[in-house]
Specification:
The complex is a heterodimer. By secondary structure, chain A is mainly beta. Chain A is built from two helices and 30 strands. The termini of chain A are far apart. The relative contact order of chain A is 0.12. Chain B is 7% helix and 48% strand. Chain B has three helices and 31 strands. The chains are: A mainly beta, B mainly beta.
Chain lengths: 459, 514
């Protein structure tokens, strides 16, 4: 390495000439950073040092590209400059020691050679051997220079072989941990008209150790197999570049919309943004007013059992994210927080739940809580033998409603086995799958109703 | 040289956004949810995701035209940043940020890496102070400085020295700071509403029932016990609580900011082991305990005004009668229920699980439960939503003094129209003794006979409900000395025993193996 020209390159937190920084953030604590900047590189071999790259860089993913550049080697040095290391590297070398007399404050400077740093520092001063500060007298140690390869921060260095001298754009890209994003939704539900206002926010978090200033930011939604998908992503991106496609902005209500790339979605932010270290940043990506939505009560029984006390029915907010329902957007995974207006018209929080990545045209049901006034009490009325490996269950579900409006509860009965079938029922059932049935049961306002049925099932 | 470069870069990168700081809300209102178990006593602290409140603040801010960054200080320290909603800004919100790079001794040094600071040394003997420029070369594990003399490590010489900085680094704040970036079309004074969720608040319901001398009615009062485990204090604020089970997400939790520590490591140093420190005086132990106890909580019981109940979606909303201060680390109680002469029935309940008829002594409960059964209806004198909570039941002794008869924890909310059963203890004067007297095997199953002795040693008649849990398939009662009913899938006999009565119930059950 001796005699190699070394150029220090500032990191993503610092602006540089002609710099274009782009950051692609994945859901799973991972981001792809691409740093394009103009650099003057001498002909022949030289070493470029990148300071202030993410402290959580994955060094094996670093690549540097530029016209006429060939990479000789890449190093990620994390041997940090500390007082202890400074002393260790000074073994066999001379340092200045300054003793300060505690009685009169006089300072005496001497030259010493560090003999060893093992559980204490042994020095030779002239023809004496001493242990540093053994007498507890204040003693400064002055070193003449920073040893090679000790750095204030982990530093990425790339040795390149340049075919020519001169300034040119170079592209540094790498993967880093410590950057992540998720979606957060605010759903304001109006029960009477059955309408929903849905706002979507992307929430970025940067704990990677550095700032990303004025970065073009895009977010990738989808549980991607990253090893494979990043290559695909680059191919698609490359293709798009060649076709000269401009990406739409991500203004409110997703004007331009997200781009579908392979089997996941890329959401570009509308304008370059600065993502500071230890920062949570939220940018709006969806703002839909008046989508169709409804409230539903549901009770799920996994098997046949009696309950000593009534259970509260679940309350779910149901909507479809199709264009026809007023909400034409796929929704990246995140938490939906639901609000309703109180008597004074103020939005009040009523519950939250996570949704998965949801493609356009899906039906979404978000459980927000349990209804105070709507309860379900199942009772096994009889449990009979119906054959060698078969049973017959006679069930009764008492649905009580203390609300001033009728309540329709979807009762889901699971736990059916082979050839499970309904023998008799007080309301018409729906078959959900081989093992579950459901009934829609309406309890009148301030009243109760009972669902009874008998099913016959193998084990 | 490098220091200069950094300074220029920071200036160039900072966008020309006006900085507006809103220090504190003018007014706030709080809605507290019953999220997670409420602490029963003052000792337990809530975890970072426990407890929940919605806080709505009103703030007035002066905003210049153009791009501005509005910072909101004085929000609850347990704010969940992604739940913030801001209304009333004249322009669009471009982004919302929460910055939690905190100013700490470590952050101060790290942020000045490569920059020139002043190294100030004081000579202990002469008192002379020297001051020289130094460049911070490293702040990784110990601080390395470069002065005109060479490289030195901070605080490794044993002589007093300190670093002096010209200014605090930009972007480091004392607390996590919430801000929005907005474009304002017209300068002016605007009133904005800031709404967000914060953890660390919770409430619970506590009930006290006094049984009246007639033994058939009781008086019931209910308290809302509000707890604020945060450092937030909003002064007199309209306060509400929400009863009902909300779904919660683990993501709804405040940012945990960890300030960078200043580590002043040095090279190894050989020394005689330091003398053991003298034992601290006894007061040193006593003081922290006293401090901790003082920190526990302050319990405030407000005047006997009742919280008003209304509906919020499928939940119940209780509005406190007047704005109140739920101060930091305080518990406050407000009355929400005060009903008199509620009819109830006292029942002695006993449940036998005898399986296939082979029961050991340990499996048989040795006493009946005392159950007070209420109907939550207006006809019975109640008819009010009852959030889950602990019911303390008081009875009067012979001298008319109230004594605690027992407590019951209602795990579920009780809506209007449903029965409520308070199991307050074990009977002493009413005994139930079941025995399996014969047990026969049959094809694919079996049959057994049970004899149950009931004895009422009380001077008054009692009602006993005796239940037998079903077993296997085709479970049925074949013979019985009294007619049975059912409850929650069990067969149940209801017996009325006169004062001093002794009675035997005999029945035979059969089943098929499942």
């Amino acid at each position: 390495m001796a005699g190699l020209a070394v150029a220090a390159v500032a990191g993503p937190g610092l602006a540089a000439d002609g710099q274009k920084l782009s950051v692609t953030i994945y859901n799973s604590d991972l981001a792809l950073v691409q740093d394009v900047r103009t650099q003057d590189i001498a002909a022949g071999r030289s070493r470029l040092e990148f300071k202030d790259v993410s402290a959580r860089i994955r060094p094996e993913t670093v690549s540097l590209g530029g016209d006429g550049l060939a990479i000789v080697e890449q190093n990620f040095d994390f041997d940090l400059l500390t007082p202890a290391k400074l002393m260790e590297k000074a073994v066999g070398k001379t340092v200045q020691i300054v003793r300060i007399n505690p009685g009169d404050g006089k300072q005496v400077t001497e030259t010493a050679t560090v003999l060893s740093v093992n559980d204490g520092v042994v020095l030779r001063i002239g023809d004496r051997i001493e242990v540093l500060r053994q007498d507890d007298v204040p003693t400064r140690v002055i070193f003449d220079k920073i040893p090679d390869n000790l750095r204030a921060r982990p530093t990425l260095s790339v040795t390149v072989d340049s075919a020519r001298a001169g300034a040119r754009p170079t592209t540094l890209s790498y993967l880093t941990n410590g950057l992540s994003w998720k979606a957060d939704y605010v759903a304001l539900f109006e029960e009477k008209p059955g309408k929903l206002d849905l706002q979507g926010w992307v929430t970025l978090t940067n704990e990677s150790g550095v700032d990303y200033r004025d970065a073009e930011t895009q977010l990738v939604a989808g549980d991607v197999n990253l090893v494979r998908s990043i290559q695909e992503y680059w191919q698609v991106r490359q293709m798009r570049r060649q076709q000269g496609v401009r990406r739409g902005g991500m203004e409110q209500a997703s004007a331009g919309g997200p781009q579908s790339v392979a089997d996941y979605y890329v959401y570009p932010l509308a304008r370059p943004t600065t993502i500071a270290q230890n920062q949570t940043k939220q940018v709006s990506f969806l703002d839909v007013k008046g989508a169709n939505a409804r409230k539903a009560y549901e009770y799920r029984a996994g098997g046949f059992e009696s309950l000593e006390e009534p259970a509260h029915a679940d309350v779910a907010l149901q909507f479809a994210n199709s264009g026809a329902a007023g909400l034409g957007a796929q929704l990246p995974a995140g938490v939906v927080r639901v609000y309703v207006r109180d008597a004074a018209g103020e939005p009040k929080f009523v519950g939250e739940n996570a949704i998965e990545h949801t493609p356009q045209g899906s039906d979404i049901s978000v459980k927000i809580g349990e209804a105070f006034d709507v309860t379900v009490q199942p009772t096994v009325v009889a449990q009979e033998k119906a054959g060698k490996w078969r049973s017959r269950y006679k069930m009764s579900y008492l649905i009580r409603n203390a609300r001033a409006q009728p309540a329709t509860v979807v009762i889901r009965q699971g736990g059916l086995g082979r050839d499970g079938k309904v023998i008799e029922e007080s309301a018409k059932s729906r078959r959900i799958d081989a093992y579950s049935l459901s009934w829609d049961v309406t309890a009148p306002a301030n009243g109760e109703t009972t669902l009874t049925f008998t099913v016959d099932t193998g084990w | 040289m490098r220091g200069g470069l950094l300074a220029i870069a920071v200036l160039a990168a900072e966008p020309a956004a006006a900085q507006i700081v809103s220090e504190a809300p003018q007014a706030a209102s709080i809605t507290i949810y019953r999220a997670g178990p409420a602490p029963e006593d003052g000792g337990r602290d809530m975890g970072p995701g426990e407890g929940l409140a919605q806080i709505t603040e009103t703030r007035t801010i002066e905003v210049p035209a153009g791009r501005g960054r509005v910072s909101f200080r004085g929000v609850a320290d347990t704010i969940v940043p992604q739940t913030v909603a801001i209304e009333g800004l004249p322009g669009a919100v471009l982004e919302r940020n929460q910055d939690y790079d905190l100013l700490s001794p470590g952050a101060l040094v790290k942020a000045s890496l490569g920059e020139t600071v002043r190294l100030v040394r004081t000579n202990r003997a002469t008192g002379k102070v020297t001051d020289q420029p130094a460049v911070i070369r490293s702040a990784a594990d110990g601080v390395v400085l470069q002065t005109a003399e060479g490289l030195e490590a901070l605080s490794c010489s044993g002589a007093p020295e300190r670093l002096v900085f010209d200014k605090a680094p930009e972007g480091l704040a004392d607390k996590p700071t919430l801000s929005v970036l907005t474009d304002t079309p017209k300068a002016g004074r605007y009133t904005v509403r800031l709404s967000y969720l914060a953890t660390g608040f919770t409430w619970r319901a506590d009930y006290v029932a006094h049984v009246r001398p007639d033994g058939r009615t009781l008086d019931l009062i209910g308290w809302l016990t509000l707890t604020n485990r945060t450092a937030a204090n909003f002064g007199q604020a309209p306060t509400e609580v929400v009863a009902g089970e909300l779904s919660r997400s683990d993501d709804t939790r405040p940012t945990i900011a960890t300030p960078a520590p200043l580590i002043l490591s040095c090279w190894p140093r050989a020394l005689a082991p330091p003398p053991a420190p003298p034992p601290p005086p006894a007061m040193a132990y006593a003081a922290p305990m006293m401090a901790a106890r003082a920190d526990i909580q302050e319990i405030m019981v407000t005047a006997q005004k009742r919280a008003q109940q209304s509906d919020l979606g499928d939940y119940k909303l209780y509005t406190l009668p007047e704005p109140t201060t739920v101060a930091a680390r305080q518990t406050k109680q407000v009355l929400f229920l005060d009903e008199t002469a509620i009819r109830f029935e006292r029942i002695y309940a006993y449940r036998l699980y005898a399986g296939a008829g082979k029961v050991s002594e340990e499996d048989i409960p040795d006493a009946a439960d005392i159950v007070l059964r209420l109907q939550n209806t207006r006809e019975a004198g109640l008819g009010k939503p009852l959030p889950s909570g602990v019911f303390a039941v008081m009875e009067a002794d012979a001298a008319g003094r109230p004594i605690l008869a027992g407590e019951h924890r209602a795990e579920r909310d009780t809506p209007v129209g449903l029965p409520l059963e308070l199991t307050i203890g074990r009977a002493m004067d009413v005994t139930v003794s079941p025995r399996v007297v014969s047990n026969a095997e049959e094809k694919d199953g079996g049959r057994y006979e049970v004899a149950v002795e009931f004895e009422n040693r009380k001077p008054a008649p009692v009602v006993v409900q005796y239940r037998h849990a079903p077993y296997g398939l085709d479970f049925r009662v074949e013979k019985e000395s009294e007619r049975h009913g059912t409850k929650a899938g069990d067969v149940m006999w209801t017996l009325r025993l006169a004062a001093g009565e002794h009675r035997v119930l005999r029945y035979t059950v059969s089943y098929k193996d499942g």
